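ASSEMBLY PREDICTION REQUEST
Request ID: AP-0331
Submitted by: J.K., bench scientist
Number of chains: two
Total residues: 624
Priority: normal
Notes: Please return the full assembly, not individual chains.
Input sequences:
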Amino acid sequence: MTDKLSVPVTGLLTGGASVTPVMADRVVAAFLTNYRRTWRASIFSSVLAPLLGLVALGMSLGKVVDAGPGAHAFGTVDGRPVTYLVFLAPALLANTAMQTALGESMYPVMQAMKWQRQYHAAIASPLSALDIYLGHVTFVTLRILMNSTVFFGVMALFGAVHAAGPAGIGPLLALPAAVLTGVAFCAPTIGWAITQERDTGFSLVFRFVMIPLFLFSGTFFPVSQLPAVIQPLAYATPLWHGVDLCRGLALGTATAGSVAGHVAYLSALVAAGVWYGRRTYRRRLNP
Amino acid sequence: MAQITSPELPPAVETALIKAAGLRKVFPPTRRGGDAFTAVDGIDFEVRRGEVFGFLGPNGAGKSSTMRMIGCVSPVSAGELTILGMDPRVDSSRIKARLGVVPQEDSLDLELRVRENLLIYGRYFGLKRAEIAARTAELLDFVQLADRAESTVEPLSGGMKRRLTIARSLINSPEILILDEPTTGLDPQARHVVWDRLFRLKQAGTTLVLTTHYMDEAEQLCDRLVVMDHGRIAAEGSPRDLIERYSTREVLEIRFAPGSGEQEAAVAKAEGLVHSGERGSIERIEELPDRILLYGADGEAALAAVHGSGITPLASLVRRSSLEDVFLHLTGRTLVD
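STATUS: Completed
Returned structure:
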């Protein structure tokens, strides 16, 4: 095998069975071949929508906020108050990652499992259920990276990256932080999506998980503005950790402790997701 | 006598490519307190190199579960299963690398082109692009889809999709091709094209394992087959063997006007012809909802005897016994959902 990504893994992932190389890259290649045909359609939802949010809320609403009594609610960097645009942009970056992750982790799984059954074709080849799971997660990670990179680039054009942080690579780390946030959503969601017999649960996730997270996880205002009873709930959500991490890095206000805490939380979610996805994929594809 | 080892003599493992002994598949209960479901209940069989081996049976007989275990997709619950000399519990990936699978339901990438479907599948097997391109040209030629290489899969007909699935299953030049109901849902022309291609594969030395509930398909293609029912093997042999063993040479079918009560009366009268020892003697009678089947060596003589005993059917048909008669005899006539 000459595949670059083929690496041997230990019994930890294969569940104690014989050590086999991970061939997830072959699944990624299949998804990319498919994506080459559909990428145009995905541009609006994944890139344009968050950009419009940045323009509408960051620029327009931001002008009103910055001129009003709330102007100093977003902290200071280098002694100057942080503008609303600069406060909002890194949070929208984390949201872009989350929305891309959720969008690519539910219907496409059902499509491959039930509607077009590509997973069944894949499991008949030398690939294992774990290869297929990791392949899907890797492909979604690439999609998160793509969308976050575009968004990050536009943030820079708006002056929301350079203007904020101190010189150095700090602000640039907001990009991998966003990707980590996205993976923390996609790893468990993909594992859950394959257990679903119908797609009804997916719209519930968008309505009752994604939208509330979008609104209440510190994207548009500091969580400290929420009623005290709800605050702990907001601090517990993965999106708040992603938002706070991205914002802290972009503004240069992050401390080593806060970065470590957020990264540990999000990484634990990824690890739990992989553990769960490995089980659900095997149960469904090797019945 | 001195033992001579001939270089042409294949090693023992080569004669039986697939070997199952006491093979079982039990699905755990789907909900708490439910019952476990035994899909395959201890079966033994051997598939030899170069033959076409069939699994026949009604829906729910355990054919597909058996095929999924052979395909190393579904874990074996109990018993022994050896494929290409390897144990699927240990070497599933290595076994799968040498198998081709044509599933019951299509699993193609509908939005992609025909050629891209083969490319993706070849990549699953770790084949190099150049190798896949060469194989693709060859295989699309073989399944008569060469002029469709750049078409999107979605609008293709059912027969074309099936042929593409067969081409895809051959991308890794498999030693064993597993086909789960390969012609279900195809029109007669499309079925004959598929049969012709499968026959060519057999001629070229590929071992085929297939399930079907089309008796004509089994008679056309299979060298040997097993009839499965309720997770067990009810009979095993070549189509001709099975017909000889479980049926008579000819069958007389007689029909009556539905709802007239004539059929019941005719069955009673026909009982007298069973083992009558005279010309037109029959072996046994099967009553179907719409007709009576009389099994005997000479169908025309049986028809004369039927007329002689005062039965006047609305229509009659004398035919050779087929695998379908064996199948119905062994698996019963109750409708299986």
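REVIEWER COMMENTS: The beta strands of chain A are 76-77, 80-81.
SIGN-OFF: pending second reviewer
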